[in-house]
Structures are given as C-alpha cells and as structure tokens.
C-alpha cells in the first residue's frame, strides 16, 4: 500500500524504533532508520531481515531531513540538533504511538502517571485477558505498539504512556484515559518547569469526545488544581482512598467499592493481590476501566485478587540469613521511593542513587528518619544524597557497583532487617536501564 507520505525517517533503533520501521515498511513507506548510538545486535538482525536500511553511531542529516515525517523514539529529547533542524524545516515529528495509532481501529486504553502506570497497565491488561478479550499490551511495556499493529490484529490495546510519548502525540485518541497521579519527574527534559511536565501528562486527554472516558485520581492535588484548565469532553470517573466520588471507586473501611458505569460491587480490601494504598488506587483504576468495558464483576474481582505484580517494582526477592532483599529498581523518582519506604514494615538498609533528575529529598525526610537505619549510595555522584541525609540515619556509605552495594548493605543488616533497592534516580550512570540495575541487584544477592 502506497501512502501520501513516501519518505519516513525513524530516529532510534530500540524496540520503539524497530517496531515503527516494520510498520512503516508494511505501509509502503520509503524509510531510513538512524541511531546516534549503537544498535543492539538483535535489532540489527531484524532490520536486515526486513531489508530496512539503517545506520548507527551518528545521523546522516541529508537522509533524515528529506523525510515528510520523522518518528522519534521517546528517549530522544526535542532539543536534539537533528530534531530542531527537522522542526525548523517544517517536518512532522511524532511519536511511535501517534504513528501506529494511524493504522489501527482498535479500542485504546491509555494509562499515564508519574508512578504506578506499569502496574496499572499490566493489571488492566490481565483483567481484559481473563475476560477473554482480544487485547494487546504496549507502550512503555512489552512489545512496541507499532510492532503489534504491524503484525497482530487486536481489538483492544492497553498502552502505558510516558510523558515523552505523550509529547509526540497529535491526533491519537484514548477511548479510555487513566491519569494516576502527577509528581515532579523528568524535569531535566522540561527545563525544570513542573507546569510543562503537568501539561505533558494532560495530553492524554486530548482528542477525547463525550463518548470517551477519563479515569482520575481524586486524591491527587496537582490533578485537582489543573483539572479546570483541562476540562475536556470525556466522561469523568474518579478513584479515591480518602473520599467518595460520585462515580468510580473508593475505599470504605475494609472494602473497595465500585460504582462506575455498568455495575455496583465491592471486594475485601485485604484480598487485593498487592499490598499498600497506592496499589489499591492502581487496582481501582484497572477495575473502573474493566467495568466500562462491561467485564463481569467476577472477572474483575478475580484479576484484582490474583495479579502477581511487576518485576522490579517492590518485588520481594529472597532472604539471606534472615535479611530480606526487595528489588524496587523501577523507582526512578522520589514519589515512587516514598511509596516503597511507606510500605516497609522492617528496619531498612536503603540502596539509593543514580542520575538525579532534580530530586527534592526533603519529601522523604520523615520516612527515612522513621524507617531507615543505614543508607548505601550507589552512583557516580552521591554528594547530594550524602549531604542531605547526613545525621539522619545511623550510617551512610557509598558504592560504585551493584556487587559492592549489596555486600555493604548485607554487612550492615541483621536478622529481621530488609535491604531495599529503591534508587529514586535514573539508572544510566552505571547501568543500561532500570531492568539491568534490578537484574544486577538480584544476581548480586544470589551470590552472597
């Protein structure tokens, strides 16, 4: 099939970029894939398999800037020189989500938030699977959305959307949008302007009509303060652990109550598969989305009671001589780590650090004083963490490899303690990504 835009350039050759390339080829585009860094061998082999031309280690500007459309991987900032030159030439620059959405008529459930979006996305996906729906899982988790549009034929998609992916969306519409929370994160990508980051998150509501749904966290102060600027047309449902929304879900003593669109039902709060009030809100959001789709209350309850969680997110690992190790490598911002520390019931040796994204550690001050006995700083520059928490815990040390960090933490622990890897920072100073960081943590614990 030939298109109106004969030439597409794809920036970045990770999962998002390669998936976009496969879809572009299927749609008949002339295309060029360019990665400023090194492309992983598996992705090179896949591009070669499909006879898709590519380059690595730099961009050939003349090949890219002749494109009508550029599909940009989410990790590439708008400030990158090649992106700026493209925009100045009037070239359309979009995200993989926007590109793939142009070739799918499926029902779209989009989920965003500073924290909890992977858990909520996976939980919603599982609920739809249990109900027997033909559903794909994409965005920031699993295979790229574009790859699935190219190679599968799903009726529904549950898509985790980061602010970077939302930035590149133009016409993409969520039939159901979920906005979990907004706390300062990735401010280095938004000129340290929190308002710009908030606006990026609210882009999930753009293009929604009165036939669509917006599921919101009624307890989130930032969402409430900005909702009047982003009224939109979608029907709004809310979830809360503090209040009783008119339509949605809420916590009532020992029960979670659902009263959204199609049914009213409840379940015992303590039977929820994942502990903590933050997971109650994640489960409520997933349950509301499922109820909108007329999934039975029995299937919703089953999913909420059986979901096993997400790897690297408050993942109980193993105990070694009475010291429990918990892998929360996915906690790349302060708010995620706040939830992790809040849920701890044992004295904590806390492994923290990485690339600071403008963190305000004062938000953790009270919890650290209450729950943390020792801190192991893990990163190439630990000075900010050491300075802030000096005198607030029994001991602070630093490590420059995961193996050393785990060994130090274990030496500081005793039976009944837990070692919590919850970095509150990005991973790219010492690791490929948060998965690499979490896997190295587990490997180092096994080696004790």
UniProtKB/TrEMBL annotation:
* Stretches assigned to the Mur ligase central domain: 111-289
EC id = 6.3.2.9
So where does ATP get bound? Answer: 113-119
- Pfam families attached to this UniProt entry: Mur_ligase_C, Mur_ligase_M, MurD-like_N
Q: Which reaction does it catalyse?
A: UDP-N-acetyl-alpha-D-muramoyl-L-alanine + D-glutamate + ATP = UDP-N-acetyl-alpha-D-muramoyl-L-alanyl-D-glutamate + ADP + phosphate + H(+)
What is this protein's function? Cell wall formation. Catalyzes the addition of glutamate to the nucleotide precursor UDP-N-acetylmuramoyl-L-alanine (UMA).
What is the recorded name of this protein? Answer: UDP-N-acetylmuramoylalanine--D-glutamate ligase
Species:
Salinivirga cyanobacteriivorans
Q: Which gene encodes it?
A: murD
